[in-house]
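User: Okay, second chain of the day. Same drill as before: sequence in, structure tokens out.
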Amino acid sequence: MRVMRVALVVRGRAEENQEVPMLQRTRLAEPAADRLFPGGDHIEAGGHLNAGGRLDAGGWPDSLPTEPRTVDETGLAEDTLRGLVLKYILASGSATPREIADVLCLSPRVIDEVMAPLKHERLVQISGSASQGEQWFNYLLTASGRDQAVTAAERNGYVGPAPVSWAQYAALLERQSVHAMRVPRPAVARALSGLVLSSPLIDTIGVAVNSSHSILFSGAPGNGKTSITRAMRDMLEGRVLVPYAVEVGHQTITIFDPRVHEPLTEDLPAYDRRYVACRRPIVTLGGELVLEDLELQWDEANRCYNAPPPLKANGGILVVDDFGRQRVRPSELLNRWITPLEAGWDQLRMRTEGTIRVPFDVLVVFSSNRAPAELGDEAFLRRIRYKIHVPDPTREEFVELMHRASAAVGLVDDPDVTVAFMRREYEEAEREYRGCHPTDIIRILLDCAAYRGERARLSVEALAEAASIYFVARTSRPDHVLPWREAMS
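Assistant: Same drill. Structure tokens below.
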């Protein structure tokens, strides 16, 4: 007897695949996507998302999706729900209606409606009962039920919280759109308060965030570009509902990702359990990015799709970090995103020639250590509306950074010591200030003191010792012999 593996996805995590006997395996006559999208036609799954979204004072859409009470209210075809129930019983061996309702995040009433024809068609049978009522009866698959479950699993192996329809997903995104957010100046200043930035720079960032257009942060490494992008998430105080999965045709795309989405722990009003209430997401793409990463990812083991990063970032921020150093050229990436950035939707390929149109409701932020002119010409850069240079800290800002870095580790700084250190290691050495230097140098100072078994203290000599380790030598002369090295020789 052959066996097949059925993926069991419960609340966003994959359980260990379970082997179940396969009595009959029916191979599909043609790929499912060919039937869904003949001739490469696409399905409209949402259009331009603009500032017309409606949010209440707490950041919620003005009306939350309620738990479906009937199959029709789920927005899903009855065959989809039948398949989910059969596949779950197949993967579990047996299950009660209450257990199925919990896993599929649907009401017992909906599960009863789905189970009724399964019982009538003798696809399931009772293997045991309980005194609590029919919701606790244990059901097994019959031979015919097992055959149907196997066929359903071959077509779409997803098992877990019931998907939401594309129409429901697009409608909710429009109401909780990130482009509907308006961040007042105090909220911008509060989110950036952990950084030492000039008031004009803070205001420029605030204007850019409120514009909902793409942003490029450029400047030398270590001046806080990454910290600024992280702080931008704190500006977006709205909360969003993220579906576990969405359905297009007979295909399932998983959206919720616990590595990306941060569920809220506060008490919340009741809503459709097929969604997870989360903070607005921030998704970062690094130097390993290739264009294929922006497409739907087919999961052969589970026979469903995983959403690409931009789809997971909907309602939040999509960061392209270290822009210009990806495996894909900057021009290729921006050409790929011309339509999404301007129209608010993207077009994704399925496994065959078919495509689907999906919402692109993200604030796109590029961050680069390279000068904008090195990334592309004027016509190329025009596609990125806001180009913000993050400069080196001024002398006064560097003093403040030294003060904050010292206080963070319990050291008392002396402004005279800081100024003397800056004169020696920066002004006389003709070295540029960088926002990351104070924290990095003071950490090395602590390491040196700990190694010698001494109490750390701020002095020009201790800071200079740490700086000599931190900075790359600019000449070929032998390294400076540190006092504690000399004592050991």
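The mean pLDDT is 83.

User: Thanks, on to the next one.
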